[in-house]
Amino acid sequence: MSTTTAGDTVTATTERGGTNSAVARWRGGWRCDVDAGGYELVVDEPPSAGGTGLGPMPTDLFLASLASCYALALTWAARKRGFELPDLEVTATGTYAGPRFAALELVVSTTADADQLTPLLEPARRVCYVSNTLDRAPAVTVFRAPAPG
Question: Do 24 and 83 fall into the same domain?
C-alpha cells in the first residue's frame, strides 16, 4: 500500500507476514543516521558518554518502541470493545544490568475507568509485536554483507 502526503510517497506494510528493516549509517563519533520505515532518525549518545546528544540513544528508541506499540495495542483493544482511552499514556522503563536491561516495566495512565482498562491489559500484550518479541526473543544472527556501493 502506498499513500501520498504533500508530494511524498510513503510505503506502508499492510500485512505482517513479510519482513521489515531499518538501516543505520555511522556518521562519526557515536552518531548514526537511521532510515526506519521511510523516516530519517538521528541516534546518538549523550555528551557524558562521548556523544553529541543530537538524538536519542538506541536504548531510548527500544523503550519508545515498547511503549508506543503497547499504547497502540491498548487502543486497538479498546476500540474492539467500542470505546476510546482518553489521554492514554504508556511509560516504558528499563533497568540496566550491564549491557542489557534486566527488567522492563510498562505503566499505563488514562482517565478511563479501571473497570474498562484492566480487562484490556492482557489482550493488548497478546497483540503487541514488541512485547511478544521480548517474551519469545528470536536469535540475532550477524553476518557480513558486501560493502555499500
Answer: no
CB contact burial 58-94 (16+ within 10 A = b; e otherwise): eeebbbebbbebbbbbbbebbeeeeeebeebebebeb
**Same structural domain, 116 and 133:** yes
pTM for the predicted model, two decimal places: 0.83
Residue 13, in any domain of the structure: no
What is the tally of structural domains in the chain? Answer: 2
pLDDT tens-digit profile of 45-97?
999 999 999 999 999 999 999 999 999 999 999 999 999 998 999 999 999 99
